[in-house]
From TrEMBL:
It comes from Janibacter indicus. It catalyses: 4-amino-2-methyl-5-(phosphooxymethyl)pyrimidine + ATP = 4-amino-2-methyl-5-(diphosphooxymethyl)pyrimidine + ADP; 4-amino-5-hydroxymethyl-2-methylpyrimidine + ATP = 4-amino-2-methyl-5-(phosphooxymethyl)pyrimidine + ADP + H(+). GO terms for molecular function: ATP binding; hydroxymethylpyrimidine kinase activity; phosphomethylpyrimidine kinase activity. Residues 18-266 form the Pyridoxamine kinase/Phosphomethylpyrimidine kinase domain. This is Hydroxymethylpyrimidine/phosphomethylpyrimidine kinase. Catalyzes the phosphorylation of hydroxymethylpyrimidine phosphate (HMP-P) to HMP-PP, and of HMP to HMP-P.
Length: 276
């Protein structure tokens, strides 16, 4: 008889649905699977969306989100949580309470404070920003992009990578324990992200891939960090590995040829090239 396989980490995505499969819980589940985690998900909002953009958002009632989480965690031991689109202040507050009590209170959390899609549609109500600020201390890591960092800090968005370290430190001062401030929206031959934790700041540089397939990069990166965290003894090595894997996913996105707009990145299963 074959030897039993080792138990994979069990990851939970609490996020919105993207029917085109490039972002949201669909991207998170593919990423978990590609990186060796068992994926579970709780859906906060249904979007009508393609690679061309978002045409509709339907928020799931808060008691249904609460029931999804409570039913799941009463049965399944979750090793790591990724939180994505939360749509409204009521959903942000509901998820905050769910992360504060019960088995999830002791579970590592990666929070991607999703606000606007790559195609420019609002995925978070403007009146929910204060609730998201209040949620920041609940996360072990937050992963804002440049526009999201600007909104959270109530400052203009950074215009160059040189401004990222100060903004990352300011986000930590707002209560986030660790910050991965993503510089994908900036220009330059490299894509520069900044990591900030209690030990200080690190610049994480990678090649900027010339591609139209950027739909879901933020969702994919945050779920990759969550999937890989249980395989490392600290956050930064998991972040570095996740970025390396995402670079390959971006490099091969166009070969998927999905949709006519900003296509999805390639959520690889096949090969471990990013490790070399
Ligand atoms: N064209 C690109 N080439 C390489 N890395 C990229 C590119 N675009 C984004 N990234 C990386 O993808 C991740 C997501 O970044 P970003 O696009 O800023 O977030 P979001 O999808 O939330 O807007 C970051 O690690 C960023 O450096
Ligand atoms: C349901 C859902 N959640 C998040 C995003 C953000 O996607 P991106 O990573 O491209 O900014 C999205 N487009 N749809």
């Amino acid at each position: 008889m074959a030897a039993p396989l080792p138990r994979p980490p069990v990851a939970l995505s609490i996020a919105g649905s993207d029917p085109s499969g490039g972002a949201g819980v669909q991207a998170d589940l593919k990423t978990f699977s590609a990186l060796g985690a068992y994926g579970t998900c709780v859906i906060t909002a249904l979007t009508a969306q393609s690679t061309r953009g978002v045409t509709h958002v339907h928020e799931v009632p808060v008691d249904v989100v609460r029931a999804q989480v409570e039913t799941l965690v009463a049965d399944v031991r979750i090793d790591v949580v990724k939180v994505g689109m939360l749509a409204s202040a009521a959903l942000v507050e509901t998820v905050d309470a769910l992360l504060a009590s019960g088995p999830l209170a002791a579970t590592p959390v990666v929070l991607d404070p999703v606000m606007v899609s790559t195609s420019g549609s609002r995925l978070l109500s403007p009146d929910a920003v204060d609730a998201v600020r209040a949620l920041l201390p609940r996360a072990d890591v937050i992963t804002p992009n440049v526009p999201e960092a600007g909104v959270l800090l109530d400052e203009p968005p950074a215009e160059s990578a040189a401004e990222l370290p100060e903004q990352a430190a300011a986000l930590r001062a707002l209560g986030a324990r660790r910050v991965l401030l993503k510089g994908g929206h900036l220009d330059g031959t490299e894509s520069v992200d900044v990591w900030h934790d209690e030990r200080g700041t690190s610049e994480l540089r990678g090649p900027r891939i010339a591609t139209t397939a950027t739909h879901g990069t933020g969702c994919t990166l945050s779920s990759a960090v969550a999937a890989l965290r249980p395989r490392h003894d600290d956050w930064l090595p998991a972040v570095r590995e996740a970025r390396g894997w995402l670079t390959e996913a971006l490099r091969h996105g166009e070969s998927l040829d999905v949709g006519s707009g900003a296509g999805p990145v390639h959520h690889f299963h096949e090969q471990p090239r990013w490790r070399t």
